[in-house]
Amino acid sequence: MTKFSDLGLAEILLRALDREGYETPTSIQAQAIPYLMQGRDLLGIAQTGTGKTAAFALPILERLAAEPRRPAPFTARALVLAPTRELAAQIADSFRAYGQFMRPSVGVIVGGVSHRPQNDMLARGLDVLVATPGRLLDHIASGRMRLASTEVLVLDEADHMLDLGFIVPIRQIVAKLPKKRQTLLFSATMPKEIAGLAQDMLNNPAQVSVTPVATTAERVDQHVFFVDGGAKRDLLIELMNDADISRAIVFTRTKRGADRVAQHLDAAGVGAEAIHGNKSQSQRIRALDSFRKGRTRVLVATDIAARGIDVDGVSHVVNYELPETPEAYVHRIGRTARAGASGRAISLCENGERPLLRQIEKLTRQSLPVTDRRSADQRHDDAQPARRVPRGGAPKAHAHAGARNASKHPRREGHHSDGHHPAGPRPARPGNGQKRRAFGGGNRAPQG
């Protein structure tokens, strides 16, 4: 079995790893660190939760320790680009933890906060700068950040940055960097746009892959509930009454929906907070800290936060609304079953979301177990064959037509973004022979 000491890391880093409780490297760490210690560029395919932050942070810290020098004002020796504020903050915390006995200067540049403290920090020069692309470009344009002497560039969650429209800003940032540098690109998936970016940016890279593209975590027990749209909120409350749920993340598609779901949970006595792009940085930090420390049991989030939430002990993920892109499902459920633990993922699927479910099953190459909690009337309607439209008459609406329309316009179903139908919920009934236990049976998830 490979040990961290076998990877050639300095004693000052091994001591920090020991204090942090790291015993053996993960697969991505064991594969990537030797290449990076040689100074090679790297293309890594790895989902979140595989230990990739340490895979790139440790070699960078090793490089800084081997060649210690004070960075010039408004420069950074290493630059890490991340898609979200939460992920940027967590990466910076990891650098500080692994470098606790060498104390590198580490800074974070993100939007949503004042420029002045960031300007003051940049003026001192940094060993490691972790930034989101948009705010970093602001500082470059104002002359408060210069990249001509940066030695290492890391693009973390490159596919997520593509989803958020950051490819053009990334190329603008790369144009400011020296051609002679070490470049690392990590992505959970490899769409053609990312492959093209890697080809343009990387020089003869080593390639490592620890998880097949677009597969879900093996330790996540996944389940789907078919439910009437108006009954989603009541079913969510029922799920939250399950004693197995020690810490849960509930995902919605919209910011407004996240706020509504969090308010509904709070009103039902389930402690919940929402986190999304309309929240200020201080609000997002406060909500994450409360969730991480167990003061809040449920965090309601949008997809922009799906890869930025790295909290141990998330026992359950609930997809209150299925995501519009199937890849987002993979990253949502990756918030549980981290660090070797197991976890559960439950999806609430109404009729209009059935095409989204089929896309997820096609991408992940698996059929998800289902419990039908729809009303008897809805199950009966869905089972009826499609009827011909009478000549000169209007077509009758039925579930199959709604599902076809939803594939093009998944939210034109007359319901609000939180799944609450304006006409009011129908009472949900269990399907024949189905247990009423919230997660459809199965093994109990570990606590904490």
Written description of the protein model:
Helix 5 (115-123) links the parallel strand 3 and strand 4 (126-131). The chain has 2 domains: 4-209, P-loop containing nucleotide triphosphate hydrolases (Rossmann fold); 220-408, Rossmann fold (3-Layer(aba) Sandwich). A 7-stranded parallel β-sheet has the order 3-4-2-5-6-1-7, sandwiched between helices. Strands 10-11-9-12-13-8-14 form a 7-stranded parallel β-sheet. With 448 residues, the chain is of the alpha/beta class. It is globular and about 70 Å long. Helix 6 (133-141) crosses helix 8 (167-174) and helix 13 crosses helix 14 (354-364). It has helices at residues 11-19, 27-37, 52-66, 85-98, 115-123, 133-141, 158-163, 167-174, 192-201, 232-240, 255-267, 281-292, 326-333, 354-364, 376-383, 399-408, and strands at 42-45, 76-81, 106-109, 126-131, 152-155, 182-187, 206-209, 220-226, 248-251, 272-275, 298-301, 316-319, 343-349, 370-372.
Give the overall average pLDDT: 83
Helix count equals 16
- Largest sheet: spatial strand order: 3-4-2-5-6-1-7
- CATH homologous superfamily caption of the largest domain: P-loop containing nucleotide triphosphate hydrolases
Rg, rounded, reads 24 Å
The unreliable regions are: 386-448
List the secondary-structure elements in sequence, H or E. Answer: HHEHEHEHEHEHHEHEEHEHEHEEHEHEHH
Q: Helicity level, as a percent range?
A: 25-40%
Q: What structural category arises from helix and sheet content?
A: alpha/beta
Q: What's the total count of β strands?
A: 14
Number of domains: 2
> Which strand-content bin applies to the residues?
5-15%
Instruction: Report the sheet with the most strands, covering strand number, pairing sense and barrel closure.
Output: 7 strands, parallel
Query: Distance between the terminal alpha carbons, to the nearest Å?
Result: 28 Å
CATH architecture call of the largest domain: 3-Layer(aba) Sandwich
How would you describe the shape?
A: globular
CATH class of the largest domain: Alpha Beta
**Which topology of the largest domain does CATH recognise?**
Rossmann fold
Domain Helicase ATP-binding: 33-208
GO molecular function, one term: nucleic acid binding
Keywords: ATP-binding, Cytoplasm, Helicase, Hydrolase, Nucleotide-binding
EC number: 3.6.4.13
